[in-house]
Design goal:
alpha+beta, Histidine-containing Protein, Chain: A, 4 strands
Length: 91
């Protein structure tokens, strides 16, 4: 199991369009991928857009990604790149 902390640095936060992109990305891996806020115990399935939106992750929110499965290393790298690239929405 891999646990990694990421920062939401996109100015709009993890909004609906970015959440949909994250769901598509997470769904491309067979591993179980969960997200949670660092300041809360709620853990959601990252393949669920409603779950992601319920995190209400605005700019500056730290999220913890938990990944377990055969392709967990590849999933972690791809998801971390996605967050670092600000969901592909800012230059």
């Amino acid at each position: 199991m891999i646990r990694q902390s990421v920062l939401v640095s996109n100015k709009l936060g993890l909004h609906a369009r970015a959440a949909a992109k994250l769901v598509r990305l997470a769904s491309s891996f067979s591993s179980e991928i969960h997200l949670s806020r660092e300041d809360a115990n709620q853990q959601i399935d990252s393949k669920s857009i409603l779950g992601i939106l319920m995190l209400a992750a605005s700019k500056g929110t730290r999220l913890v990604i938990s990944i377990e499965g055969q392709d967990e290393t590849e999933a972690e790298a791809a998801i971390c790149r996605f967050f670092e690239a600000k969901f592909g929405e800012e230059s």
